[in-house]
Design goal:
Blueprint lengths: L1 H12 L12 H14 L16 E2 L13 H12 L18 H14 L3 E5 L2 H12 L5 E5 L4 H9 L4 E5 L4 H14 L1 H5 L4 E6 L11 H11 L5 E6 L14 H5 L7 E5 L9 E5 L1 H10 L1 H4 L6 H15 L4 H20 L3 H6 L3 E2 L15 E6 L3 H12 L2 E2 L2 E2 L10 E5 L6 H23 L8 H10 L4
Parallel strand pairs: 1-11, 3-4, 3-5, 5-6, 6-7
Antiparallel strand pairs: 2-8, 7-8, 9-10, 10-13, 12-13
Helix pairs in contact: 1-18, 3-13, 4-13, 5-6, 5-11, 7-9, 14-17, 16-17, 16-18
């Protein structure tokens, strides 16, 4: 019943509200009117209830199953018991009372694990990234960013003192080269090294599951700005625990620890805890303490929060997660192989019903990310979501513009250590069954104008097809 319940609630939430509030306070009516813009395209976000084990998880960030299996929870309870006299609240910011020894020691352990000079713990990965980006830019500097960087990077740029912000094409080294070359040739202060270029990228992009060509990007930046005033901030949120030696991430895997100014790691995803970590040197850390308003004007993370991060990292440090990390690779490979062999797949791709960019040359890659987008036509992403949830009893969310670029609507699949090969095969069959439905509808060989699951969803709201 979960699927029917959540879809009914979601459909009801898309009904316009402002017209019903003509006699109500203008403030709230105006708010709802702004939300009605999203309701008109059935894109209003909804705080959905958690699903039970009858629904297959293809959504959560628990890629290593450390949360599902209670491993970090149990380790946290032992850690708290071992420090029975801990003071729960930090009772102040890092520049006041909140710079306590357990926090400092945990940062040292994390920095050592990643081969960084120092680490700085934040309340969340979003806050870590936004704060770091905002804190390190000075007037006259320039942000250069991949066009698909996370919202937290954009918020950090907005909060910074840096006025000039230039994007380059996604994962396109030559586009980055063009932007940097133009900056060098048109800005004497950048060329002389008296002002900085801050380049923002991600290791694994959250909606596309593709990987930054980091080594090539670093080489270009060093070539064009040999004085070292072009530096990188990399968001490693989706690589933590999943790629690199013992899950250390892309930078460690490539041996670029000395080349990257700022690395952002996340504990609320594969590490099954909470919080974010900024890996940097002492110069960046000094700038964070001075300039990062989130850190200066808010209390430090509590003991319990830092303890959860510490025990999560201890799972990586001990090597306990390596088998789980490898199992995710096996699951993703099985998906690609099974999809490639399905009799409907090739026609569905040729007709533009679906496309799966990471499947291109997948057999030649040494490793894969756990995020796989199933791209489809605009509005079809909702149809596919309905089918996967209602028919196959699997949860994988649909995304469209403005969260992803126009024309790139998709169902976003997140694979986990706990996903079985049988579940993967069921997923492939569900996607291809839906694709066949759409092929039949588009070719006119079906009497229906909408696929089966979509008709069921519309029936929940009393809408006829």
């Amino acid at each position: 019943m979960y699927a029917e319940t959540v879809l009914k609630e979601w459909m009801e939430a898309q009904v316009p509200r402002a017209p019903q509030m003509k006699d109500g306070p203008a403030f709230f009516r105006n708010l709802e009117q702004s939300l009605d813009v999203h309701r008109a395209t059935h894109s209003l976000l909804l705080a959905k209830p958690r699903w039970d084990d009858s629904i297959v998880d293809l959504t959560t960030s628990d890629a290593l199953s450390l949360n599902r299996d209670g491993i970090v929870r149990d380790a946290l309870l032992k850690e708290l018991q071992a420090h029975g006299d801990f003071i729960l609240s930090a009772s102040g910011s890092r520049v006041q009372y909140g710079n306590y020894e357990y926090l400092i020691q945990t940062e040292k352990e994390i920095a050592e694990f990643h081969g960084a000079e120092t680490a700085y713990i934040a309340h969340s990965g979003f806050m870590a990234n936004a704060s770091a980006v905002a804190a390190i830019g000075t007037p006259g500097d320039v942000f250069v960013y991949d066009e698909l960087v996370h919202t937290s990077s954009h918020d950090g740029m907005k909060l910074s003192q840096v006025a000039e912000q230039i994007k380059f094409k996604h994962n396109d080294v030559e586009s980055l080269r063009d932007v940097l070359t133009n900056l060098r040739d048109t800005n004497p202060k950048l060329k002389a090294g008296t002002k900085n270029i801050i380049i923002l990228v991600e290791s694994i992009y959250s909606m596309d599951g593709d990987v930054c060509p980091l080594k090539e990007c670093v080489a270009v930046a060093k070539e064009i700005f040999p004085l070292g005033n072009a530096q990188f901030v990399i968001d490693e949120a989706h690589s933590t625990g999943l790629i690199g030696p013992q899950g250390r991430g892309l930078v460690n895997m490539l041996g670029l620890e000395k080349e990257i100014a700022v690395r952002i790691h996340m504990c609320s995803k594969a590490l099954a805890s909470t919080g974010g970590v900024i890996l940097c040197n002492k110069h960046i850390r000094n700038a964070l303490i001075q300039n990062a308003r989130f850190f200066v004007y808010s209390g430090s993370p509590s003991f319990a929060m830092v303890a959860s991060m510490r025990v999560g990292y201890q799972q990586l440090m001990s090597g306990a997660t390596m088998e789980r990390q490898e199992q995710v690779q096996k699951v993703v490979k099985h998906f690609y192989k099974t999809m490639q062999e399905h009799p409907v797949y090739e026609e569905a791709v040729e007709e533009g019903i679906i496309s799966i960019p990471p499947m291109e040359d997948w057999e030649s890659r040494k490793w894969h990310t756990h995020i796989v987008p199933i791209r489809t036509r605009n509005h079809y992403e909702k149809y596919l979501f309905y089918h996967v949830l209602l028919i196959a009893k699997m949860n994988a969310y649909a995304w469209s513009f403005p969260i992803v670029p126009k024309g790139q609507s998709r169902l976003r699949i997140v694979f986990h250590n706990h996903n079985t090969f049988k579940q993967v095969e069921d997923l492939v069959n569900a996607i291809c069954d839906w694709a066949q439905e759409m092929l039949d509808i588009e070719s006119g060989t079906s009497d229906n104008t909408l696929p089966e699951a979509t008709r069921q969803v519309y029936a929940l709201q009393g809408v006829t097809s």
